Amino acid sequence: MSEAVNGNPDTVAGGRVPGQRARKYDASRRRAAAAQTRAHILDTARELFVTRGYAATTVAEIARRAGVVPDTVYTAVGRKPALFRELIELALSGTDRPVPGARRDYVARMRAEIDARRKLAVYAEAVTAIQGRLAPLFLVLRDAAAADADLRGLWDEITRRRADNMRLLAADLASTGATRTDLTIDEIADIVWTMNSSEYYSMLVTDRGWSEERFAQWLLDAWCRLLLVTPAGP
């Protein structure tokens, strides 16, 4: 039988209160349930945005398909622009939460490589994985940005971030001494920026039926030929 402490029948030896443990367990269950509901809402929203487009998808329809009320969508994620932004950020990061570009795993792996071709190999694989998640959404964003101010702002922001990140990548690549001397950092960045796009991925993988493995290998081969002084063999 548990021993009361300091005359308090609710406290057992060791200072633990049984009710506290139950409350912590209940709070943990609530957080897990909320996270599960949020993930389901996001999955449902993604499917609708990709199949119907941004303008034709309403929060009410997302809620109905997800089996919740609209207020739950607003509480769990936000308004429709915030919902779409979250989907874009999660597709970019490949995790259950947004991660800034400089802190993604593949960036650290690229920087750890000292060989230019190995850096590009890591990045080609990362781009292929990212675009598998991102491309369907990004094409929706591109089409909707012309008519929606919120999405135009998101489009401009993502475009600017991509360009800035490509300059960092180009500088890291040039630091190996293996890039072509007739290309500036900005030119290297622009070439990679163009070829890592959702449009490129969609044309070759979705429209032309390339496998992701073929696309990644093609990116690596093309970048080595375009950017490096003497492309190394396999």
Automatic annotation (TrEMBL):
Pfam families the record matches: TetR_N
MF terms (GO), sorted A to Z: DNA-binding transcription factor activity; transcription cis-regulatory region binding
Keyword 4Fe-4S attributed: no
UniProt DNA-binding residue ranges: 58-77
Family matches, as SUPFAM superfamilies: Homeodomain-like, Tetracyclin repressor-like, C-terminal domain
Annotated PROSITE patterns: HTH_TETR_2 (PS50977)
Keyword DNA-binding assigned: yes
Residue span of region Disordered: 1-26
Segments passing through the bilayer: none
Protein name: TetR/AcrR family transcriptional regulator
Taxonomic source organism: Gordonia jinghuaiqii
